[in-house]
Specification:
single chain, 386 residues, Rossmann fold, CBS-domain, 2 domains, six-stranded mixed β-sheet, four-stranded antiparallel β-sheet, 26% strand, binds adenosine-5'-triphosphate, binds magnesium ion
């Protein structure tokens, strides 16, 4: 969707050239959330501003949807790219609605349609249009202004949005809330986002891909999981911080700690067969699967004992407090399901086929093993469960 090819920016200060961005190349997919991060002065803002030509590259090219941006009229280009900056930059003498409607108006969108869209957008970030649309920016809190700044970038319905430390000036709670809203918005609207931050936790939370820069070059570009698991070098390791390098429940998938190869049983199986299979495997659980081997519930030895299976179809005796989760579910999300009444989680692949099981005990053991494995490399994670 977005392709940066050998982008270079040389600033001239007092006749001295300064290489701010050095031969940077990056591919961003449609719908991807990319976070540029790095120490102050490493070239994040320069890179971002080259994308919408607020700064002209010294050399290199930017391609958007297979068209080089140098062939696009720059005014047109900026209408097609949303841009959000740290101090929001709302126009103080324009109402909230008017601020949001700048690009739609430039695009000659019908007045009523425009307002309708503005109201939808305000509701999307929990700002009641009846209260806020006619207010002026000064009558909003910092967090509310930030929300409007994001909406203004969304209003023209751009595929690509650039955000330069948009939440930098906010208190941690508002910031956290806006991050959640941002991630939801991006997922529901399928926007491509290039987001700049100093804050590694913000990057881990939001990014599909983190691009860590140093002195104008990319040190590592990877998913948060990959970067935490395999930092490219000491600089990355130091930047991430040792405390984040131990397995992190917010990014580690539950598939890393699940009990693998769960006993599966056809939903048409006879009760006696289920019991004997469980005994043979020494397993307290069996996962019921349909004819396509898709998840259909879990039966436990306890349930069978209590309810009896004679004359009943297996799905009838399955544990109602069992659920399926996909293998990319984080340990944190799995833990929260198990804390909220779910007794057993069956981990399934994309085709809904069972590949593992997690109970509360298994979750705890898995986390302990992960920690052990990460702290002592001679003792790798024990993945067999007995
Ligand atoms: N107009 C300019 N003229 C000369 N040098 C500049 C100019 N703008 C930026 N620089 C220099 O280029 C380098 C990269 O700046 P840039 O603003 O891209 O950094 P950044 O990564 O966004 O930093 P920060 O995290 O502090 O915002 C810095 O060393 C900066 O001093
Ligand atoms: Mg900057």
């Amino acid at each position: 969707m977005l392709r940066l090819k050998n982008l270079t920016k040389v600033y001239q200060t007092d006749g001295e050239p300064f290489l701010a961005v050095d031969d940077l190349s990056l591919d961003v997919d449609q719908g991807e959330f990319v976070v540029l991060i790095g120490a102050s002065g490493c070239g994040k803002t320069t890179t971002l501003k080259m994308i919408n030509h607020l700064i002209e590259p010294t050399s290199g090219e930017i391609w958007i949807n297979d068209v080089p941006t140098k062939d696009t009229n720059v005014v047109q280009l900026r209408r097609e790219i949303g841009y959000v900056i740290q101090d929001v930059g709302l126009f103080p003498h324009m109402t909230i609605a008017a601020n949001i409607e700048i690009v739609p108006k430039l695009k000659n969108m019908d007045k009523h349609k425009r307002r309708e869209r503005t109201r939808e957008l305000l509701e999307l970030v929990n700002l009641d249009p009846a209260i806020y649309e006619d207010r002026y920016p000064a009558e909003l809190s910092g967090g509310q202004q930030q929300r409007v700044g994001v909406l203004r970038a969304l209003a023209g319905d751009p595929d690509l949005i650039l955000m330069d430390e948009p939440f930098g000036a906010l208190d941690p709670i508002t910031r956290d809330q806006l991050q959640d809203e941002m991630k939801d918005l991006q997922q529901s609207l399928a926007k491509t986002i290039v987001f700049v931050t100093h804050d590694i936790d913000e990057a881990i939370k939001l990014a599909d891909t983190i691009v860590l820069m140093k002195d104008g070059v990319i040190v590592q570009a990877a998913s948060p999981q990959e970067m935490l698991k395999n930092p490219a070098n000491d600089y990355v390791r130091e930047f991430l911080g040792e405390e984040r390098l131990v397995p992190n429940a917010d990014v580690t998938p539950v598939s890393d700690i699940m009990l693998t190869e769960p006993l599966t049983i056809s939903q048409e199986a006879e009760a006696a067969e289920v019991v004997s299979k469980m005994q043979k495997r020494g397993s307290d659980y069996a996962v019921i699967v349909d004819s396509s081997r898709r998840f259909g519930g879990i039966v436990t030895a306890h349930d069978i004992q209590r309810k009896g299976v004679k004359g009943k179809a297996l799905p009838q005796v399955s544990d109602r407090r069992a659920q399926a989760v996909v293998d990319t579910t984080t340990i944190r999300d799995a833990a929260s399901k198990l804390a909220n009444g779910t007794r057993l989680l069956c981990v399934v692949d994309r085709k809904q086929r069972p590949i593992g099981l997690v109970s509360r005990t298994a979750l705890l053991r898995g986390i302990v093993d992960l920690w052990d494995g990460s702290k002592n490399n001679d003792n790798p994670v024990n993945e067999t469960w007995s």
